[in-house]
Amino acid sequence: MLSMSKTLIPVAFVALAMLSGCAYVERVAPDSEDKVLSTTLGSKDIEAAVQKMARSIIKIPQIANAEKPPTVAFATLINNSSEPIETNLFLKQIRTLLMQHSGGKIAFLNREVSEQVLRERDLKRKGEITSSARKGVLGADFFLAGSIDALDKTDGKRSSTYTVCTLELTDAESMLLVWADDFKVKKFGKKSWSER
């Protein structure tokens, strides 16, 4: 027959293991420093990159001095880094920021819903549904594209990551690159003694 102490010890370990899971969740500001230590991009880096790029792009003459707001469509933001990054996060945040704070100086085409828009237009043209006005589908004046590139180094105990997020605005008629800017961040980390 098992003694009471031999039975309680495994039960205690199982209970402790269950309790040590994700038992604590805290809501923090998106631009706060990540508590999960990593050399990869964090939310604070993304927020800083978006702010810098939005402030930069709105100042170029093709947008700041345009008689009517130029239309911008997204091209591809390529992730060349070793970390999984949701690249649309950058583009959508820049779009939102510019739409909120540019005073109507820039307009964005929403190509994500192009099939639905074209289907709706077709139904309106056929008279199957009503429309307040007949409009043409706009083409892009510019394409916003870019890349995320990173250089990772490690020696087993320490690691560093140098990340560069680059965005470019290209004229959709001439293919002329009219604007480019980047955001750079370098992070250094040491492995804990338990990870070595």
Mean pLDDT: 83
Give the CATH level 1 class.
Answer: Alpha Beta
How are strands sequenced across the largest beta sheet?
2-1-3-4-5
Strand content: 25-35%
Query: What does the main sheet amount to?
Result: 5 strands, mixed
What's the β-strand tally? 5
CATH topology-level fold name:
Rossmann fold
Rg over CA atoms, rounded to whole Å, is: 25 Å
Overall structural class, as computed from helix and strand content, comes to alpha/beta
CATH architecture: 3-Layer(aba) Sandwich
Instruction: List low-confidence stretches.
Output: none
Which term fits the overall shape?
elongated
- Counted up, domains total 1
Number of helices: 5
The percent range for helix content is: 25-40%
Spatial gap, N to C terminus = 42 Å
State the order of secondary-structure elements, H for helix, E for strand.
HHHEHEHEEE
Structure description:
With 196 residues, the protein is α/β, with parallel strands linked by helices. The chain has a single domain (39-190), classed as Rossmann fold. It has helices at residues 4-19, 43-57, 61-64, 87-101, 114-125, and strands spanning 71-79, 107-108, 142-154, 158-171, 177-190. Strands 2-1-3-4-5 form a five-stranded mixed beta sheet, with helices on one face. Strand 1, helix 4 and strand 2 (107-108) form a beta-alpha-beta unit. The protein starts with a helix and ends in a 6-residue tail after the last strand. The model has no long low-confidence stretch (mean pLDDT 83).
